[in-house]
Specification:
2 copies of one chain form a homodimer.
Chain A: E1 3-11, H1 14-31, E2 36-41, H2 46-52, H3 58-66, E3 69-74, H4 89-99, E4 104-110, H5 123-126, E5 130-136, E6 144-151, E7 157-166, H6 167-182, E8 187-192, H7 198-214, E9 219-224, H8 225-234, E10 241-244, H9 246-259, E11 267-274, E12 281-287, H10 304-316, H11 321-336, E13 339-340, E14 350-351, H12 354-364
Parallel strand pairs in A: 1-2, 1-3, 3-12, 5-10, 8-9, 8-10, 13-14
Antiparallel strand pairs in A: 4-5, 4-11, 6-7, 11-12
The complex binds 3-isopropylmalic acid (2 copies).
One 3-isopropylmalic acid (IPM) sits between chains B (75-76, 90, 93-94, 250) and A (195-196, 226).
Binding site for substrate (chains A, B): 97, 107, 135, 226
EC number (chains A, B): 1.1.1.85
Family (chains A, B): Belongs to the isocitrate and isopropylmalate dehydrogenases family. LeuB type 1 subfamily.
């Protein structure tokens, strides 16, 4: 049996707690011989800054390059509000994304039937919701230069951010979206602001070209980002796959995640290109939720998004489909069994903490 | 009685139909002696392009500079999808905003009690909702340079947009937000992405400084734009005033508007600075909804947002508080009377078209 090199980066806040639970699942899979892992662990985010003055060390980056897949918890927190910009916790995550060229961020927004009532939206609007946001992750305003703050006269300052997209960046993310749509309901909505942004003009044009040349069996629709935000609230079930840039993807995927009522449940995958020779594809898996400093350290966090992220790694990085199914079935099982952390608690259910949810998951496996 | 110079720019799509109804209200106010108007009218958007090859003519711009207030319907539509970028319908609106320096865009997201059930959200989450989004409207990525698409080798292209903010632009919009909060529930949430954008870093810093120096009686909270999107869905009533940049404001205000279930009902104001000498303040009023090409020309559009925009003009530009109250009371009256256009129709109500709603409004006045 192949041994899979897995790097664990718990990060900050509840990242640490949810990573502890996923480790138990990994151990279980390893001990039962379902899969074989070589585990490394390291720091990222504020935790890394506290230890070495950088939001990720060179050593951790080397481990990331060597790994078959990375599981990341979450980064950030008020403790690091005043560290230099280059050293803020998020910079560790952004460096991983950029240096490993993890350009395709897959964010499923799925409404678990058992949790439809936890949504802000009326049940009929979200029941059965299954949207996949495909967010470009290594370009756009996150990384474009110049990105500066400069002093003008009179104590005035000028800040600049630059959004840059080249055709190839749009082409490759469009392909990912169309390919995924083919395995789903065959529909892609591409989202930008071509009415005010030149990157939006290029985005729309390139997505249309890739569609016409390679994917004209897939239904393609273009929506402006503001309309898309509206439509997500009005009628989210109209969507199958949404493909969008780094910044719009950040906001729209958070809105979509919140719609489901299952925020603490949602995993994500950030994938690189398939390497021509090795056939390898770099990948990082992380919950959609953040470090949640308000509940960190209290044992209240929901570990399901983190465990679901492991399931995505089993499926997409290791080809362990059965193991992935098994972990996902365990998640469905604990929900059916009525176990609920605070974020998804409702009347009549069994309230558990982070490790209680971990116990329940192991019992289901 | 002072005569108020009002410029009407119906624009495209349903803009034309809703403007026709607001004209009837203006006539009514004028005929009854409630207010006195000198009305000018001109083209903007696709309509202007079709007539003069520009999305707004120099003549119309001159009228805009001469007006005390502008009412604008909506711009855009698929008909102009392939006109040159500089000539697209939106460019007319953007030029008005920029040249008149209408930097403060006020977008109330109010849930009319009679319409709470039209929201996607559960009634208890939106009943009584009253959020005011204060969006910066003349800076950011909408206007920053460079803003280009260039050819690279191999048929590849590179597109660039630039987000620029200077301290003074953030200071003045922050002041507007804090001042308005004082007339409301005294709370401001400032929204940016300081964790990835330098303009976000400056935004947060300047808003905090203005707060500390001039408005420390107002409660100020900072939220990242992605979190703010989530929070709008999760618990919108936590918000009083949200202050944010041009691009985030575009998306978040559309999400907020859609939450209310009253999209066709929501007016907006875009205000310039108060001029030192004349005490005048340039202003443009327009519905939050767009040109809605799918229903344009069918007599189905809801004119209430347009009529509400007139009420805002009466209040903020002309100081005609009683007239503004009267128009707003008429809006409340037709809703209480059960009149509903398609967008807000529900079982048991009286379905009306655009002019039917206009009739009902006049009857209430
Ligand atoms: C932590 C932060 C840098 C990050 C982002 O803005 O991309 C987060 O919000 C996310 O969506 O993964
Ligand atoms: C029409 C368009 C240019 C405009 C914008 O993006 O600002 C619209 O969406 C708005 O919100 O007023």
């Amino acid at each position: 049996m192949a041994t899979h090199k897995l790097l664990l980066l718990p990060g900050d806040g509840i990242g640490i707690e949810v990573m502890a639970e996923v480790k138990r699942v990994i151990d279980w899979l390893d001990t039962r011989g379902v899969a074989s892992f070589a585990i490394e662990e390291d720091l990222v985010g504020g935790a890394a800054y506290d230890s070495c003055g950088q939001p990720i060390s060179e050593e951790a980056m080397a481990k990331a390059f060597a790994a078959d897949a990375i599981l990341l918890g979450a980064v950030g927190g008020p403790k690091w509000a005043n560290v230099p910009y280059e050293c803020r916790p998020e910079a560790g995550l952004l460096r991983l994304r950029k240096d490993l060229q993890l350009f395709a961020n897959l964010r499923p927004a799925v409404c678990y039937p058992a949790l439809a009532d936890a949504s802000s939206l009326k049940r009929e609007l979200v029941e059965g919701l299954d949207v996949l946001i495909v967010r470009e992750l290594t370009g756009g305003v996150y990384f474009g230069e110049p990105k500066t703050i400069s002093d003008l006269s009179d104590g005035q300052k000028r800040a600049i951010d630059t959004q840059v997209y080249e055709s190839y960046e749009i082409e490759r993310i469009a392909r990912v979206a169309f390919e995924l749509a083919r395995t789903r309901r065959n529909k892609v909505v591409s989202t930008e602001k071509h009415n005010v942004m030149k990157t939006g003009v290029l985005w729309k044009q390139v997505v249309s070209e890739v569609h016409g040349a390679e994917f004209d069996d897939v239904v393609l629709e273009h929506q402006l980002a503001d309309s898309c935000g509206m439509q997500l609230v009005r009628a989210p079930k109209q969507f199958d796959v949404i493909v969008t840039d780094n910044l719009f993807g950040d906001i729209l995927s958070d809105v979509a995640a919140m719609l489901t009522g299952s925020l603490g449940m949602l995993p994500s995958a950030s994938l690189g290109a398939v390497e021509e020779v090795s056939g390898r594809r770099r990948a990082l898996y992380e919950p959609v939720h953040g470090a949640a400093p308000d509940i960190a350290g209290k044992g209240l966090a929901n570990p399901i998004a983190m465990v679901g992220s492991l399931a995505m790694a089993l499926r997409y990085s290791f080809g362990l489909i059965e193991a992935a199914d098994r972990v996902e079935a365990a998640i469905a099982g604990v929900l059916a069994g009525g176990f609920r952390t605070n974020d998804i608690f409702s009347e009549g259910m069994t309230r558990v903490g982070t490790s209680g949810m971990g116990d329940a998951l192991l019992a289901e496996l």
